[in-house]
């Protein structure tokens, strides 16, 4: 939801006031207040803590930035191209990626730093705990931001990015702040989905040699409350929720399955760090910890010993079993004020992560739809995901928001063939309907040819003479079918119960409707 500019002005005033206080205390001139059109790195610069790294696949993080966001490489001929912006200070030109990658697949090979430091990230090499990584599929995470369809970065195990020779990033107890916009729907409990400061040799060189945001469900120090995912600090040899490692905040049960999360870490490098999170679609930030550096593991965290590399998607030693989503993130020189953090969060919310695509009710790519059964028993039933599986469930105007969201899908060009379609979950960005052992599930796109084929369906006139039927791309005689309220790919007669010829033509015919989710 876009916020009116006049609601942002008090936050800019707070940033300016805080920056003035910092300037006076240091005996230097105060930075000027940020303009209402300021983007995150403009805000932090105005608060006296400029970005030394600014990475995003979806938008500019400076109002004046007009360069490239990332680089893709296509499989067909290994050629590369840079993906830039639609306008200065604007959003990614995803159409350029679509055109370049048409008829083949692409991976992301570089993420450009928008700051003057040029701390670009490339695919990570082997480390102490993991073999060399591979690039993430460029089309795995389509999302609407600022009213534009763009692509985020979807990390599966074995993927990661890094820069071991940076400029301006904190080292040896220097102060810094950082945030990233990630997702609570694509996480696991493996080490380590990090963004931030890491070792320069891809190895664990000891306590305090990292200073990175971690986001996932791994509870390193018990107790952790709730089931996560949590925003934690990876300070090496531990994921920290407090100076004691474990959570001292019983209300910090994690973000839950929020599709878009702002995760934030600040560390003065000497005797204090803080953790915050927020819903990147609405509201402000919540501080889950603000206090001393860790005192466990034999110490070594006060002062810190950062080495100044930047890592994304793995641990400092390339522990690369984690999964995660990344849309944007920055690192600053010095600790930003709380007012600056609040202003940045307000800007993140204003761009409308996960907003409506603007198209509904058709099989055109980008359209949001629901899929209704046509069998006489079940005309108020729709395909929805529930506990990762696709099921047939009644959805009405009085249904819960969760039920409506679970029954809403975004039509995408077929992951294996652009003449067919794939169905992305509306409330689990980057997750698609795919078949596995003939049953349909909601699963994250991992970039493999197998997943692409399993998640691609080819529309044809409904087998009952009404609606639309969807043939499996890699099993073309099998169609999406409901049977006993589960959803399968099924043939007309066969050895499996769901292949029963009884009412098959009706069960494989679907009505494409307007989406239940707003």
TrEMBL record:
One of its GO terms (biological process) is arabinan metabolic process. The keyword Transferase does not apply. The keyword Disulfide bond applies. Residues 373-512 form the Alpha-L-arabinofuranosidase B arabinose-binding domain. GO terms for molecular function: alpha-L-arabinofuranosidase activity. Disulfide bonds join 41-51, 101-106, 191-192, 420-458. Gene3D superfamilies: 2.60.120.200, 2.80.10.50. Residues 1-35 form the signal peptide. InterPro entries: A-L-arabinofuranosidase_B_cat (IPR015289), ABFB (IPR038964), AbfB_ABD (IPR007934), AbfB_ABD_sf (IPR036195), ConA-like_dom_sf (IPR013320). Residues 40-353 form the Alpha-L-arabinofuranosidase B catalytic domain. Keywords: Disulfide bond, Glycoprotein, Glycosidase, Hydrolase, Signal. The active site is at residues 236, 317. Belongs to the glycosyl hydrolase 54 family. This is Alpha-N-arabinofuranosidase. It comes from Streptomyces mangrovisoli.
């Amino acid at each position: 939801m876009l916020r009116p500019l006049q609601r942002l002005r008090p936050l800019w005033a707070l940033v300016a006031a805080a920056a003035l206080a910092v300037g006076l205390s240091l005996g230097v001139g105060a930075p000027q207040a940020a303009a209402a059109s300021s983007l995150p790195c403009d805000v932090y610069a105005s608060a006296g803590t400029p970005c030394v790294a600014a990475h995003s696949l979806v938008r500019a993080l400076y109002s004046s930035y007009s360069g490239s966001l990332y680089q893709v490489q296509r499989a067909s001929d290994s050629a590369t191209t840079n993906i830039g912006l639609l306008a200065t200070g604007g959003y990614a030109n995803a159409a350029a990626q679509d055109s370049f990658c048409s008829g083949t697949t692409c991976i992301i090979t570089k993420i450009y730093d928008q700051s003057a430091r040029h701390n670009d990230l490339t695919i990570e090499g082997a480390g102490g705990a993991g073999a060399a990584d591979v690039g993430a599929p460029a089309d795995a995470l389509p999302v609407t931001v600022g009213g534009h369809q763009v692509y985020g970065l979807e990390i599966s195990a074995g993927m990661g990015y890094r820069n071991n020779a940076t400029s301006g990033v904190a080292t040896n107890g220097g102060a810094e702040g950082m945030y990233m916009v990630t997702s609570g729907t694509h996480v696991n409990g493996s080490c380590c989905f990090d963004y931030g400061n890491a070792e320069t040799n891809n190895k664990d060189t000891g306590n305090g040699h990292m200073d990175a945001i971690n986001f996932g469900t791994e509870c390193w120090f018990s107790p952790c409350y709730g089931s996560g995912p949590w925003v934690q600090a990876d300070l090496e040899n531990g994921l920290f929720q407090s100076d004691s490692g474990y959570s001292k905040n019983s209300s910090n049960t994690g973000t839950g399955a929020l599709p878009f999360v702002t995760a934030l870490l600040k560390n003065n490098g000497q005797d204090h760090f803080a953790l915050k999170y927020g819903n990147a679609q609405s509201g402000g930030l919540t501080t889950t910890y603000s206090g001393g550096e860790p005192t466990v593991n034999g110490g070594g965290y006060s002062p810190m010993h950062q080495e100044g590399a930047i890592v994304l998607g793995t641990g400092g030693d390339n522990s690369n079993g984690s999964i995660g989503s990344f849309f944007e993130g920055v690192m600053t020189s010095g600790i930003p004020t709380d007012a600056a953090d609040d202003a940045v969060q307000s800007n993140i919310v204003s761009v409308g992560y996960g907003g409506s695509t603007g198209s509904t009710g058709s099989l055109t790519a980008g359209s949001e739809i629901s899929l209704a059964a046509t069998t006489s028993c079940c005309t108020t039933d729709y395909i929805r995901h529930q506990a990762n599986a696709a099921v047939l469930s009644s959805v009405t105007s009085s249904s819960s928001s969760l039920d409506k969201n679970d029954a809403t899908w975004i039509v995408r060009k077929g992951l294996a063939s652009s003449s067919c379609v794939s169905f992305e979950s509306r409330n689990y960005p980057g997750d698609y309907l795919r078949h596995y052992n003939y049953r349909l599930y909601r699963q994250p796109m991992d970039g493999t040819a197998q997943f692409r084929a399993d998640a691609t369906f080819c529309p044809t006139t409904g087998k009952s003479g009404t609606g639309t039927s969807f043939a499996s791309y890699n099993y073309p005689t099998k169609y999406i079918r409901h049977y006993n309220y589960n959803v399968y790919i099924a043939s007309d007669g066969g050895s499996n119960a769901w292949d029963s010829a009884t009412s098959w033509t009706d069960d494989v015919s679907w009505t494409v409707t307007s989406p239940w989710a707003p």
